[in-house]
Amino acid sequence: MAGTTALRRRETPDLEAEEGPLRDSSEASGLGQDELELELELLRGIAAGNRAALERLYREYQHRLARFLRRSSRRPDVIEEVINETFWTVWQKAAHFRGESRVSTWIFGIAWRVLLRAWQRHRDNAAEIAVEDFPDHPTVDPSIDHELHDWLGKALATLPVEQRTALELAYGAGHSVEEIADIMECKVSAVKARMYHARTKLRRVLPRLAGTSTGSAEGSRSSSG
Q: Residues 184, 101: contact at Cβ < 8 Å?
């Protein structure tokens, strides 16, 4: 795997929903019972010192963690550093996992804490994001999707990082508000408050961005005509 050497060295938010994702968290993350059992089995293997199990779990989570981390940092070096340190911690702490949460909740919680430490080490622009850091979600009409992607990226970039992270964990990674509270080490009420304020701000910002973009596009067409 891409980070093995380092380890050896050491869809648009539903703005009307007020309580986080409405689907079961395992369904939202795309994991069935078999996949959840496989993750537990891999973690047991890691706890027993099986490096192949670690590499497989890394392959399962590397893209998901990178997508999550891109919401909080635009620096590829910071993202790679956080992922590698996360799995170094998984390797060290797997035996301490007691099954009180999903494996994904445990891993994302480690990643969040590692990210906070990374921000302390990289105080310049480690927590900055750009619109292009938000991956596309293809739809039937690519032109419409590109415009929506642009609006949403700009709107999300205006949110405080903890609000943006809560939304990403809910709608991007499929975690429940209880799981997000475990990941971010805060109360459920704090998660709900962050998501509420994030949605409130997005309701204000998105129409303004859409109007600006539409006006710019119309002005461009008029000048070209």
A: no
Q: Does the structure show a pLDDT above 80 at 17?
A: no
Distance CA 35, CA 57 (A): 11
Residues 6+ apart with CB under 8 A from 64: 104, 173
CB atoms within 10 A of CB 216: 10
What's the one-letter identity of residue 91? W
Domain boundaries, the chain: 25-216
Local confidence band at 29 (pLDDT 50, 70, 90 cut-offs): very low
Q: Does residue 165 contact residue 7 with C-beta atoms inside 8 Å?
A: no
* Cα–Cα dist 173/190, whole Å: 19
Within 8 A by CB and 6+ apart from 86, the residues are: 65, 107, 110, 111, 114
What confidence tens digit (pLDDT) does each residue in 113-160 have?
999 998 888 765 544 544 344 444 433 344 445 666 677 777 888 888
The model's pLDDT over 31-70, given as tens digits with 9 standing for 90+, comes to: 567 888 999 999 999 999 999 999 999 999 999 999 888 8
The backbone torsions φ and ψ at residue 160, rounded to the nearest 5 degrees and listed phi first, read -60, 150
**E strands present in 27-96:** none
CATH code for the domain defined by 25-216: 1.10.1740.10
